[in-house]
Amino acid sequence: MLLSSYTNGAPYNPGTMPMSSYSGSAIFNVVRLRKTPIIWTKMAAHRVSCRVLRSVRQLHTQTSFLKAVESTSGGSGYADFSKGHLVDPASAFPVPLVEATASNMRGYATLFPATLEAYNKAEVEIVQWPSLPGRRPICADSGTAGGVREGLFTFEWEGDTLTAINEAVEGNYTTGRIPVGHSTTQRDFVLTREANYHPDGGQIVCPQNGEAFVALLALPNDDVTAQDFVAFYCDGSFGIHINSNVWHQPVFPIPDRAAYYGKQGAVHACVAYDSVDEDGVWLKVPLNPKEVQHMPASLKAAS
Fold first, then answer.
1. Tens digit of pLDDT for each residue in 211-232?
2. How far is the first Cα of the chain from the last one, in angstroms, to the nearest whole number?
3. Are the C-beta atoms of 228 and 299 separated by less than 8 Å?
4. What residues have CB less than 8 Å from 193, skipping those under 6 apart?
5. pLDDT, tens digit, for every residue of 234-264?
6. Rounded CA separation 299/261 (Å)
7. Model's pTM, two decimal places?
């Protein structure tokens, strides 16, 4: 036997009508369904609805956050690499590969031995917060307290795709592709399309176990183009400190998997460049040390 009260002139039928259809003061007094007493109130229904809504909102927030972490952090990972394997490498801009020496890397980066002791002693350059035009200057002893973040920078070649995780800034990226028809195990080059720089400070990358890598860099210049980039072959015996404002992409490891000690400014401000959107070309970055050439004079830093 079903005993029901009325709200807004309509009887409640639990089999056909949802509770959200009712409004007013107490919806029910006591309802008996198959001799089981159930006390329904509008307040109770409201509380249930609020709990459900909160759960949905929390799930949406968590899902959005996870998607963001999976895709990018800072200036890496924004570009679309989904069709990079279909690019004809002959149409890409050939970045010159040079040996990473202190002389060649002047203005781009500095070198230090690839030991944990040397890494721990290496200091990240921190740039003072800039004074704004028309405003009073920043005090000389301020604007540099953002600190440094550090963590492992791990890389893995997954078939034709290079993925990277930067624990220091919680970044998870795709950074390069190998086009169809080219070896994904004996890799001679990789295609990429993005780079970024940090105006707030430098960035340190140091091989954990002597893993060789290629660093794609370009000197400070907001009008950067594909022609400004140079790839430095690093044999794994040293780490590098990439100078502030120097364009770079996460390094390209030579082995299938590699881990590097990393640290950088905690502010982690990024300025991004996309070679496909801005110059209409992918960047072809050599990985084979046999392709090392002399440093082009046009890419040397000014004295």
1. 999 999 999 999 999 999 999 9
2. 95
3. yes
4. 79, 81, 84, 274, 275, 276, 282, 283
5. 999 999 999 999 999 999 999 999 999 999 9
6. 28
7. 0.76
